[in-house]
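User: Here's a structure from my thesis project, written as structure tokens. My advisor, Dr. K., wants to see whether a designed sequence matches the one we expressed. Can you design one independently, without my sequence as a hint?
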């Protein structure tokens, strides 16, 4: 009898451990159902290129992925990073003088904007030549001007990529002509393109179809034409607002494209396609798919089972009505969901630092995230604006690109009780959120373990009762 009771208890224990704890957990409406994020998230269309990614520009949500961490040669899509670093470290009216090296150390048969040794142009003109005509000699001249030497400028490019959290990139030149040690991946290219998107000067340049280049000390006036087919109207695609082409024998055909429709801005990166026709076809397929499949929701307009943002902060003393403050979501305050998923399927998590000393102007006082199953679909800083002060230009320009999903590449080991999500992201680099434990998410497992312990105790009680009866 004793052995039978013990065996029964052991079987019950094993059975309880095998039961999905989600079925025995009854939390609030958002936690009662464990959402199958992998099943709910569309896989997207098949394309011919070897690698591709589509992200939503504001939130950084990845909407499509194919071999996004595999390395490819970027060719002239490199020039997005070149232009970004130049914009970060110079003024548009600075005068760039073309050196002998800039004119002669770059292949004369490669794409150029026509600069010659001794020619003087503004930084703005050089950047139009880089992004529209894909001027390789212009990237060399700009690199020397900004970095002091082309070697130092390349170090600046790699440092910028590292700052942005790039995981599989190394840049060996400023133009993208082939070098075995010059490579990137679709994910990193999207990170760089997203950061560039946040620069208004960059977006103005990349979205320009033609630019009137004035006469210089060496050349007559001429027209520069954007090589991107969607922008120069070689191929019709009404939603394109910018992008960059790239092609070498080793890289195949690469294309970065910005597109905007119905209030949602997408960035697509397609790499290692076989032909120009195919890289544009793949890009169109992916952009149309993403626009048709996903919806963008503003965080401050969402109304979920919990109190909606930002009214949840009413209980915090620092944010009482008499302080004349404005509370808002920071950059990236958008949630991206497939059209077959309701906003109510999200789980919202808010972390704030109630020990923060509030000063005048802009204060990042916490972070807000929305998750669908295991996937973070939106994240942003929570910003407290004290109206008695004004945010400085330095504070504004110091904003970090707030968030890019997937989280397994972004934040690891971040103490969310003291740091805002965006600030943590800047410091964490290409890591993961895997070490951050959501207590609500862990609750089902804790309950399951508790149930298992209870079963064991019941079995032991049964054994004791049996002994007494004998």
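Assistant: Designed independently from the structure alone:
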């Amino acid at each position: 009898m004793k052995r039978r009771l013990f065996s029964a208890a052991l079987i019950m224990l094993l059975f309880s451990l095998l039961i999905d704890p989600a079925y025995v957990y009854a939390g609030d409406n958002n936690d009662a159902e464990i959402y199958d994020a992998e099943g709910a998230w569309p896989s997207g269309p098949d394309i011919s290129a070897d690698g591709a990614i589509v992200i939503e520009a504001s939130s950084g949500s990845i909407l499509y992925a194919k071999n996004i961490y595999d390395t490819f040669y970027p060719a002239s899509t490199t020039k997005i990073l070149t232009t970004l670093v130049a914009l970060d470290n110079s003024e548009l009216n600075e005068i760039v003088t073309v050196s002998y090296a800039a004119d002669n150390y770059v292949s004369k048969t490669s794409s150029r904007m026509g600069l010659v040794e001794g020619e003087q142009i503004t930084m703005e003109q050089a950047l139009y030549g880089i992004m529209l005509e894909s001027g390789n000699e212009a990237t060399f001249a700009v690199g020397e001007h900004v970095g002091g030497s082309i070697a130092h400028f390349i170090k600046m490019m790699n440092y910028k990529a590292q700052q942005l959290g790039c995981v599989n990139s190394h840049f060996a030149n400023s133009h993208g002509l082939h070098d075995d040690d010059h490579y990137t991946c679709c994910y990193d290219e999207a990170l760089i393109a997203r950061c560039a998107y946040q620069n208004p000067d960059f977006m103005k340049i990349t979205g320009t179809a033609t630019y009137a280049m004035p006469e210089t000390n060496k050349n007559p006036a001429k027209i520069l034409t954007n090589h991107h087919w969607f922008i120069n109207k070689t191929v019709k695609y009404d939603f394109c607002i910018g992008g960059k082409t790239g092609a070498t024998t080793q890289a195949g055909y690469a294309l970065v494209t910005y597109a905007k429709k119905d209030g949602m801005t997408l960035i697509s990166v397609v790499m290692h396609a076989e032909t120009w026709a195919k890289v544009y076809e793949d890009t169109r397929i992916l952009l149309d798919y993403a626009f048709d499949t996903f919806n963008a929701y503003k965080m401050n307009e969402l109304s979920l089972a919990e109190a909606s943002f930002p009214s949840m902060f009413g209980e915090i003393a620092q944010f009482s009505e008499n302080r004349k403050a404005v509370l808002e979501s920071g950059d990236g305050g958008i949630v991206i969901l497939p059209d077959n998923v309701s906003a109510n399927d999200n789980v919202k998590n808010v972390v704030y630092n109630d020990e923060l000393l509030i000063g005048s102007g802009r204060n990042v006082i916490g972070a807000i995230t929305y998750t669908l199953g295991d996937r973070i679909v939106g994240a942003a800083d929570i910003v407290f604006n004290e109206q008695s002060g004004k945010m400085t230009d330095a504070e504004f320009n110091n904003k970090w690109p707030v968030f890019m999903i997937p989280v397994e590449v972004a934040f690891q080991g971040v103490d969310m009780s003291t740091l805002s999500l965006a600030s943590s992201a800047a410091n964490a680099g290409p890591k993961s959120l895997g070490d951050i434990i959501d207590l609500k998410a862990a609750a089902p497992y804790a309950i399951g373990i508790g149930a298992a312990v209870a079963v064991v105790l019941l079995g032991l009680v049964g054994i004791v009762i049996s002994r007494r009866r004998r």
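When you compare it with your expressed construct, this may help: Residues 304 and 343 are 7 Å apart (CA to CA).
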